[in-house]
From TrEMBL:
PANTHER family: DEHYDROGENASE/REDUCTASE SDR FAMILY MEMBER 7B (PTHR44196), SHORT-CHAIN DEHYDROGENASE-RELATED (PTHR44196:SF2)
Record Pfam families: adh_short
Organism this protein belongs to: Brevibacterium marinum
GO molecular function: oxidoreductase activity
Domain of life: Bacteria
Name of the protein in its database record: Short-subunit dehydrogenase
Length: 257
């Protein structure tokens, strides 16, 4: 029987490309998204067995729906990709706190709730691999996306701690830190009027996904997703002050009108 992977945010962007790469490696896919388009995943990946789950991961009920699907299949879960996430652009003075609460629910709370179920199942199996999509935003202050970056820093740190805990249980945890990637992500965040608004200069989501899946399979602790320039920027982040990184980030994230 084929191996089974759970991928959240599988209907678009990086999660769709990760699903494609896992399907190419022979995995069946439980793919999660909150809109109807998740139902098209089976047509996109015709050679894989696909189980689409439409669930809103900003709610605990959505997480339960996803986990019920995993449980009902009654199969080993070989891979879990905690990837669904969004951002919110604009100055913290102006953004709506309700939007921020939704983002925190999706980017943090749902990931922790799902991870709780995933690690229990994988520990029981004494096998499994987890990929957590964080971001290069975990390595810098992110003014004008001021809550998004900390949600990714949380996931990066969470993945590193969990990795240490789970190594005696036969489970590996890998964090993927993509640089800016050409998906709908920044449009959804309302950042069309910033440097991030254009996809022309960004990383190819297929490349980012390949780097993530290769690191997952190799059991690496983390990987930067993107081209050589992106990886160099990640290296430079280690040596620059937060003040300097915040100034640089704001030049790209500040709305122009
Ligand atoms: N693109 C970048 O520049 C970039 C850089 C670094 C890190 N990342 C991280 O990469 C991950 C994926 O981003 P992306 O660029 O692929 O974004 P994307 O193209 O906007 O895709 C987001 C995915 O998440 C799903 N999703 C959104 N809200 C959801 C909800 N409430 N419940 C369930 N699923 C939901 C979307 O499906 P529906 O729309 O159908 O719900 C879609 O499948 C995120 O965690 C993000 O933080 C992205």
């Amino acid at each position: 029987m084929a191996q089974l992977a759970l991928v959240t945010g599988a209907s678009a962007g990086i999660g769709l490309e990760i699903s494609r790469q896992l399907a190419d490696r022979g995995y069946d896919i439980i793919g999660v998204g909150s809109s109807e388009r998740i139902r098209e995943l089976g047509e996109t990946l015709p050679h894989a067995e696909v189980y689409p789950v439409r669930a809103d991961l900003t709610t605990e009920a959505g997480v339960t729906e996803v986990w019920n699907e995993v449980a009902e299949l009654g199969r080993e879960l070989d891979v879990a990709v905690l990837n669904a996430g969004r951002s919110l652009g604009g100055g913290f003075l102006d953004t709506d706190i309700e939007d921020e609460k939704q983002m925190i629910a999706l980017n943090l709370t749902s990931q922790v709730l799902l991870a709780k179920q995933v690690v229990k199942k994988m520990a029981e199996q004494h096998a499994g691999r987890i990929l957590v999509t964080a971001s290069m935003s975990a390595l810098t202050p992110t003014p004008f996306e001021s809550i998004y970056g900390p949600t990714r820093a949380f996931m990066f740190s969470f993945a590193a701690g969990l990795r240490e805990e789970m190594k005696d249980h036969g489970v590996s945890v890998t964090a993927l830190l993509p640089g800016a990637t050409a998906t709908n992500f920044h449009q959804t965040a309302g950042m069309g009027n910033t440097v991030f608004g254009s996809n022309d200069w960004k990383n190819d989501p297929a490349q980012v996904a390949r780097q993530g899946v290769e690191a997952l399979i190799a059991g690496k602790d983390h990987v930067i997703g993107g081209d050589r320039k992106t990886r160099l920027t990640a290296l430079m982040h280690k040596f620059r002050s937060n003040r300097s990184k915040a100034g640089k980030f704001a030049r790209d994230s500040r709305p122009t009108k």
